[in-house]
Amino acid sequence: MCHCGVKEWRSQPMQAKYAMGNVELAAAIVFTGCSPMQIIRFLQNAGICCFCERTFHRLQALYLLPAVDQVWKKQQVALLEAMKASGTGAKLAGDSRADSPGHCAKFGTYSLLDTTLNKIVDVKLVEAGGQVFLNRLTGASIQHAKSFDVYSCALSKH
User: Fold this and answer.
1) Which of 1, 14, 47, 68 has its CA at 20 to 30 Å from residue 143's CA atom?
2) How far does the chain reach from its first CA to its final CA, in angstroms?
3) 54-59: long-range contacts, CB 8 A cutoff, minimum separation 24
């Protein structure tokens, strides 16, 4: 306790029980694509206090992933509205990615791109499984594309 009666000192603002500087550091790690363990180890070796890996993952789940999801949905709605408003019809291209040769992925992604705007319209994550997987992905993307006029559509099923 200091002479003025203060029992606790905080160097950064708090949100719930988390220091916002820690949230900002976790965001910097995620958004730069750095390895959390390498950054945490670097800071510890430099003698800089830092959160542990478990706290990083908790911050990511509580703050960062919901924020990314919210921004993605907001931008996707704006993109779809712009595509509808253009009146020219969308030019779409789709492609899938399941795994690399010699590997067996459990999940795969299918991306749908508006080639005029050069922007991703939708991304689907589906459990992998041969032709059924590809049919589900392209089907899901086509269903999404039905919400606006489509001028042309090229889908990959390899």
Assistant:
1) 68
2) 68
3) 55/22, 56/26, 56/29, 59/18, 59/22, 59/23, 59/26
Asked whether 135 and 123 are in contact (CB, 8 A), the reply is no
Q: For residue range 89-138, what is the model confidence (pLDDT) as tens digits?
A: 777 787 777 666 556 667 777 788 888 888 888 888 777 665 554 555 45
Task: Tell me the H-state helices in the chain.
Answer: 20-32, 36-45, 53-59, 65-86, 130-145
- CA–CA distance, 21 with 14 (Å, rounded to integer): 9
Give the span between the Cα atoms of 148 and 115, in whole angstroms: 15
State the helix-helix crossing angle for 36-45 and 20-32, rounded to 10 degrees: 130
Q: Please give the backbone phi and psi of residue 5, each rounded to the nearest 5 degrees, phi first.
A: 95, 0
Cα separation, 106 vs 128, in Å, equals 5
Three-class SS state of 67: helix
Contact 92, 80 (CB under 8 A): no
Q: How confident is the model at residue 30 (pLDDT cuts 50, 70, 90)?
A: very high
Record the pTM: 0.68
